[in-house]
Each structure stands twice: as structure tokens, then as C-alpha cells.
Give the backbone structure.
Amino acid sequence: MEQAQIKIYIGEIDKWAGIYQAEERAETICGRLLLLYGLFRLKEGQELFLADTLTEAYQKLKKQLVYGTHGKPALSDSFSPHFNISHSGKYAVCALSEVPCGIDIQEKKELRNHRIFEKILSEKEQDEVLFSTDQAAAFYKYWARKESFLKLTGQGITVDLRGISKPVWQEDFTLKEVYAGCISADTECQVTYEHILPFDLLKFFS
């Protein structure tokens, strides 16, 4: 059976937020612009938005967004692709997929208080992190995995992170060696990663 495809678009928040002015957080703008780029790449954008300018396309995208009980976004058109967005530090990522998915990235920061281990990790996971040669990398790997699974299911942080189930499939990734990431789905997928610049989106409106 052919594997489902997931495309992950990666962008630097400051660069992307600079091409569109709105009273929204920079990371929100970046994530939505990456989604817009992915939709236009798939030619879904032209059909959904019929927009001549970036501003027009962005506003039409906002109107197409619907949200689940715990805030998971989706496109209102049932024939549209699935997507999920995450941001941390300087980066945002958008996963565009043929199947429901959840994505998360976490900037690896210095771990000053190990009490957070007890809130997020199972006892087995705590032991692995504590005995790891790179505790921060091990901890944020697990955190990204758990968050991506919760974003896949749409539960949000409404359950005990220490005991959540594992998805059918997930793939770890890193950004610039400073960010831990994970993509989760209910079926095995083939993933491609692409760093995107604002020009890549703007050329659709030139």
C-alpha cells in the first residue's frame, strides 16, 4: 500500500511576519503563511481563495479555518488537506498531509528544574532522561512526541502527559540542532521537509 504523504514547511518567524502586517502574534502569522504557501503549492489555494493579493488570500484563509473542541484548527472544506502548525523560539512549522496529523517543535533550553520531568514523563522516561549524556535533548524529544500526539488527536493538554498512548506512527526530527520536533499520524507516512522563504509565497502573487 502506498504511504500517505506529509510535507513539512519550515520558516523563520521574523522573516515571515515581516511580509504581512496584522494585529496578530508573529508566530501565528508565520504559521498561517506557511499553510498558505503549502495550499498554493498543491493548487488548493487558487481554488479555495481566488485571491490576487497576499492580504486577500490571508483573510480568506482565516475565514476558512474552523476549530475543534480543544482548539485544533482545520479547513472548513471537507475535501481540503489536513494540516497542523507548531512554533517555538525562532521557528514555525506547518505540516500539510493527506491524513490527520499532529506536529510539535520545542526549542531545547537549559533544564534548571528537574521537577518538570515528574509532570511530563513516565517513570521509565524519567530514568532514560536522567541517565542520558544530553538530558535536554532527551527531555525535549519526549515532550515533542507527546505534544504531537495530543495535537493529532485534538485533545490538547487535557490529559496526563505521563501516561498518554503512542500513535500508530511518528517521526522525530531536529531543526538547527537546537529544536526537537515530532510528527505523528494514525498511519505510516512518508515525510519531506522544506525550508521556505517569504519570496516563495510572494511569487504566487507577482
